[in-house]
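Project standup — Tuesday

K.O.: blocked on the structure for the chain from last sprint. Re-posting the sequence here as requested.
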Amino acid sequence: MVGILVVTHGNFSEAIIGSMELVFGRQEKLEALTLNYGDDIKELLAKIKEKARKLDDGDGVMVLVDLLGGSPCNVTASCLKEEHIQCVTGLNLPMLITVLEERERAALWELPEVAMESGKSGIVNLKELIG
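H.V.: unblocked you, prediction finished:
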């Protein structure tokens, strides 16, 4: 099973996992990392590498980050030379739930597309949908 690591600015990673658990229940092989004001980027890099090793049982690790170009994204990018790590930006709740649903059926290399499609399809103008 692919491990999932959620890395965000502030406590968003912990909060979105908490919200996901309300809908989807507690999940194994899922970890959160936060980057707060004044945190050391080198420490974040070490934590990402440590968590990725912990989460990878041979199927790899999918990292979901909040913002393209933000520090969690940039630090994760330096880890992507590893074969068993993928990363998608723009984290939202539909994306997280779908990745968790699909990670036992889909290979690591397939999960970025799954994440991106789900993230996009979860964005809807409700007034147009029901109007």
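K.O.: great, moving the ticket to review. The chain has a mean pLDDT of 97. The CA atoms of residues 83 and 125 lie 38 Å apart.
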